[in-house]
Structures are given as structure tokens and as C-alpha cells.
Design goal:
With 617 residues, the protein is of the alpha+beta class. The chain has an eight-stranded antiparallel β-sheet, with no helix packed on it. Strands 1-2-3-4 form a four-stranded antiparallel β-sheet, with no helix packed on it. The relative contact order is 0.10. Residues 338-572 form the Mannosylglycerate hydrolase MGH1-like glycoside hydrolase domain.
Amino acid sequence: MTGPSSSLHALVTVLSAPSFVQSEPDGQVRAGGPQGWFTRDRRALSLFELAIQGADAVPVGRRHDDPAVAAFHAVIRESGAQWRDSTLRVRRDRQLFPAKLVEQLDITNHGAGQREFTVVLRLATDFAGVDDVKADRSVALVSPTVTDDLVRWQDRRGSVTVQTHPAGSVDVHDGVAQVRWMVVLGAGETWRLDVTAEPQMAPVGEFEPLPAGNPPLFRLKSASRAASINLADLRALLLADPLAPEDSYLAAGSPWYLTLFGRDTIWAARLLLPLGIDLAAGTLRTLARRQGTRDDPASEQQPGKIPHEVRAEGIDNGQVRLASLYYGTIDATPLWVCLLHEAWRAGLPAEQVRALLPNLVAAMAWITGPAADPDGDGMVEYVSSGTGGLTHQGWKDSHDAFMHKDGRHPLAPLALCEVQGYAYAAALAGAELASAFDLDGGPQWIEWADRLKKRFHEAFWVADEVGRYPAIALDADKNPVEGATSNMAHLLGTGLLDTDQASLIAARLAEPDLTTPFGLRTLSSSSKNYNPFSYHRGSIWPHDTAIAMIGLINEGHPGPATRLANGIIAATTHFGGHTPELYAVLDDFEKPLAYPAACMPQAWSAAATVRAALYLA
């Protein structure tokens, strides 16, 4: 799903899941757009602005080495004194905890004489949900109450309190609380203000995320600055399952996806498996606890199906309406099986695997059954429920993620090429686990996989002026959706391809219309539907590039894999060491350009950079 027009890449994000603050580069949280302090999918503060009356704060720098900590520096330029040296210096330190925001303001007088000035702190909240913010919907401010040094906002959606030390005088106008201090500062003296804000969101049931603290994950010691920064971002995205707090998983990303996502969380865990099995184990169990058990069209739940996303409340962003526990994904279930198999091969203890075998059987029943093949043609497909859920249910899930050459939207049921690869790999993985743990079903899953492979080879291969490649999808009439895309890269290493087919894909990916110096395009730049600033039709996604990198390595093509790995690192370096959700690359411009609404940090993007750094080490 795409975001609003506001440019997130220009904002500073301080993150400690499930909370984050998005502010201007000077540290100010101003009203409007996606700025604010958010916790559990709701905005706790929509305005958090500090000022010295009658003067302008001129930003001179900031430090943001830790995802949860930032320091903003400024000097004060008074009216009519723009040509004189500034004598007042301001430092604003922000530290975020999972359920608390702490700020410290220091104002130092470097002048020779005494200074007098008024400091004003402006505060407001609207308790807007992330879907309101994403849709750029205006939400009315909540009027606060004031008691001594405490300002408090409360309604049915929750409450938030702000406490200041020292206490100031407070007045409220149009929902905005203004706290004032008259400050007298001698030469060389520093005045300090401490601000503590704490939220209490309304209970949201068993799916409320809880902070994971600092579990012993990601032990990698690396000389790579990009890897180190992204490992820190990943730690900040860790959450614990409230049903079993010993199990940690990665929230998908900030700001829009700071919660459990089936596909994103699984891919992040798969990319990070070289660092250990703890994250994979927590991810597997967290998703297994929410595996579908019944048919529910409203949430698209089906028995055995792994969920797409878990929210405190349902989502309605103007484009889609999703239940708080939503299952509209075609690929999370086979990806879950693949992760279970890979974690077992990486050392997940047998007793932990055995505890998940009922979930494996249920998942394989869904993959190989009629729920995942609504027209009975032997391929894994999806049809939206028509209740406001996602139109597309693969990883490219925007409404216009892929189209026929003439611009027509393909009709469902839709069979995505990469999903056939995931499902084939899952069937073989499930069969191997069944053999190792004396489960029934393994031979039937292999037979099913063989039929899928035959159907794929018959139906998916198309050609353009460069050569043969798999189409991104088949529509309801089994017509291929043509145009070379990155999706074909996800087939590498799944076992669905023979050696010659893997070589064809490797060669096609290496063409300059797809591979750039900064990663793999989602759609060929020669396509009529190409748009480098679209969400899925020509932009570059680091996780997508990393999946291609791993597939190329597994199929014996280290040259193009190395080029993609270097591209991920180069792009990450350009964005200050942090890896955005996606970005654009133009052939006539030598640097990657920001996608305005991209999340950063994003779990699978950060994991992609770490995996690329591991490969290049």
C-alpha cells in the first residue's frame, strides 16, 4: 500500500518499537502531515514545538547514532541581530522508550552579560490512527486538562500525559497547550528543561504488541558501517509476542507497518538466518499462534493460512479496509513453511520443530487444497474477498502493481510466478520434514509439487526482444501478464527451474533495464508501464534485490549476485547508512532518489543490507 504525498525521507525518525517520533530535521514536531509521536498505531502527540519568543532557532547540526536517541543543536538569532554572533546555544536531547518519551532542553548563554527570555512549549494531540495519517485525513484536536506541572489529554482512544520540570505556566487555546517559562540566565549559565510524556492507549485485545527489550539477537560483529547501522535499526524494530513474550519478531517498518506482518517478518527472519535461529524461531511461533482456523470472508481467514498483518484496530486508509487480524496474503503460508525448514536445517532443536508440525500440516493443507487454487487449475492463486481487502496479495500489493501491456488490470484469480516457486519449495521442504519426523503427507506433497512444476513450465514462459523469461502472473483467462519484472528472481533457488531456465533468468536480470548500480528494478525500464517513482512498477526495493542476490548465488551465478550486493550497499551508503523501504534510480542521474512515502527503517530492507554485507565480507 502506498502512503501520502508527504516526504518521509526528509523527516527524522526516532524509534523504539512500538513507538516512534517523526520530526523535522531541527527536532520540532509540527502540526500536519505524518509528524508526531506515535505508539501502537496511534498518534500520542501531534505537536511538540519548543521556541524562544522573539527569536529564531537556527539549526546547526544533529546526532542520531542510536535509533532511539537523537540530539538537535541550534543557535538563537534574535530579531534585527542577524549579522551578529549568536550568544545563546540550544541543545535538545530526545530519548524514546517503548512507552515513554523523554526530552531534555539545555539553553546556554555564551554572552558576557545576563539574558532574559521566554521559552514556550506548544503541545497538542489528535489521537489519529496511522490509517488517518496515511490517508492525510484531518482529525480534530483533543482538548487537554492542566493540573500543576501535568498536561493531560484523554478520550475513548486513550490518554497521554506530559510533565515538565521545572513547571511552567499553562494556557490552552483551540486545543493547543502552551507552557511558558521566564528565564533569567547569567553569563556562562545553562538553563535546563526536562519533559516526560507517557501514553496509555485504550486496550486493544490480545494483539497489542509489547516491547521485546533487548534480547540476545544479531550478534554480528562487522567492520561494515552499513551493517552496523542496520543491525541497530533491526534491534529497534524488535517486538515480543504478547501471548508468549519470550518470542521476538521484527515489526515490518516505521511508520506505517510497526506491527506483525506475515510476509515481511518471515523474509526478514530468512535473510538474517546466518546470524542465528532465535529470531526465526520467535517469528515461526508468533505467526503459528495466529494461523487461520476457520473461514471468514471479512478477514480472508482460512484454515491453515498464515496472516498478512495484525493491527491494534482495523485499517481504513481510503484505499482499503482491513480487519485487525487480516489474512489477505497468498505467499505468507508457503514462506512460513520454507522458514521452518531452513531454521531446522540451521539448527532449530527437534523438539521446537516437532511443536510446530501441526501448523505445518495445516499450512500444507491450505497450500495444496482448493482454498489456494480457487479455479482448480493446479496453481496457487488468489481472489480478493471483495470486502475492501487488498486487490493484490503478493509482495507487490499496490492496486496497480502490475498490468497488461495495454494498461488493463488483470482479472482474478491471479497466479503470481514467484508464488509458484515458493509453493514448490514449501512442498519439498514439507516433505523432507515429514520424512524426518514421521509425518503422513510427504509423498502426496511431492506429487502435488511435480504437477505444479509441469503447469508452470507450460504456462508462464514468454519472450521479448531480449529473450525468454517467466511472466509476472497469469490472469483469470490464463493469459500471461507480460513485461520483465524482478519477481522472476524469486524463482531462483526454489527448485522450480531447471539449470537452463535459471541461466536465462540470471542473464535477463543482468540487463541494464533491470539491474542498476543501486539494485534491481521491480519492472523493466523498457516497459510501457514503467515509472521509477511508482511503488512497484520500476522502483527498487532492497529486500527484492537481496532475494535475487541469494537466488543467483544458489544457482551458481556469483558475478551478477556480487553486483546486486554492491548495489544495496551503495544505495544504503547514499541514504546515510540506513536502508529505506524503496527508492528510485534514473539512468541519467548518478545517485538514487528517495521515494517520498518510503518507510525507514524497514525490517526486510535493513536485513537485506546486513545479508549483502555478510556476502561481501
